[in-house]
Design a protein that fits this description.
The chain has 136 residues and is α+β, with helices and mostly antiparallel strands. 20% of the residues are buried. It has 3 helices and 7 strands. It has a 7-stranded antiparallel beta sheet with strand order 1-7-6-5-4-3-2.
């Protein structure tokens, strides 16, 4: 499993960032890569990307205004996204830690690790870019 962490300052109050992160049904409105969200219960949802990928998510921890953790799995990876929030003078610091394990590259560890790092960085950077665009 590969882990990647990025941090960013979102120029608005922590409560607004929390509301945006936790309102998963609204992801298709502001996330450039998401086509549709299906709610599968209080703590589960399925994300459909514009590229046709379907990912199942489960909320494993939620502390309003502080922390949100999601387990995820699709045909290519399984892992976890962890969001932590902290108030700063210039807005809200968002720390996004993501773990991923490729499901189909088990025979080539080097290729697997490169895929995981590339996948994580791309997904994290896109998420933060879209969030900043919405809340700036």
């Amino acid at each position: 499993m590969t882990t990647s962490t990025i941090s960013a300052i979102i120029p608005c109050e922590i409560q607004k960032v929390w509301e945006t992160l936790s309102a998963v049904e609204s992801y298709p409105v502001w996330r450039s890569d998401v086509e549709q969200i299906e709610r599968n219960g209080e703590k589960q949802f399925t994300e459909h990307t514009k590229d046709g990928y379907v990912t199942a998510f489960m909320v494993t921890a939620a502390e309003p205004g502080k922390r949100l953790e999601l387990d995820l799995e699709n045909s290519h990876v399984k892992g976890r996204w962890m969001f932590t929030l902290a108030s700063k003078a210039d807005g809200t610091e968002l720390r996004l830690t993501a773990d991923a394990e490729a499901k189909q590259l088990t025979t080539r560890p080097v290729g697997k690790s490169v895929f995981e790092r590339t996948y994580l960085k791309k997904e994290q950077e896109q998420f933060v870019r879209d969030l900043k665009e919405l809340l700036s």
